[in-house]
Amino acid sequence: MRSRTPSPQAAYSQHGHPGRPDVCAADRRNEQHPAGLRTRSGRREPPHLHHALEEGFTCRDGELSVLLGRQTLNVPPGETVTVARGVIHRFFNATARPVRFRIEVSPGNRDFGDSLIILQGLANDGLTNRKSIPKQPAPMGLVAELGDIWSPFPLSLLNPVVRPFAARARKQGMLQELRRHYCPS
Question: 2-4 and 79-83: which strand pairing?
Fold first, then answer.
């Protein structure tokens, strides 16, 4: 398997979702946290970044596109693109056929995998908008917190607004309820 790590210059110096990815697998014991996903044609995830996680995208079938800053990398089957911490990115399917791919984060993080599973469950239940962003601020904040998902400007203005909803929802037991409902062990 070939791996590409974009240069810092190409990516400015770096997670179902609008692609409505279907979580196929999540092994929460690994050092790197893998999740198998699928996304349909034309679906795009909103740009975001992770402060604490490095994220790798490995295409398994089809061709995955990963936008790093202003550079789009097309990832054929068997190739991996690694996105460093702090780099604005998004993944999407620009082709007419489905794409299967795997995401691995390092360091390993159970919460990241749970955020993908919860987000997919919310989307399946009609509780997200057409871009697969939770409609309510509490689950939106919890998913963002779990997945270390941060929005770039201008949506970054919402980061400090949404995070307090996560804290309140956590105190009210919403995280345990979402995990119990969407992430059965």
Answer: parallel
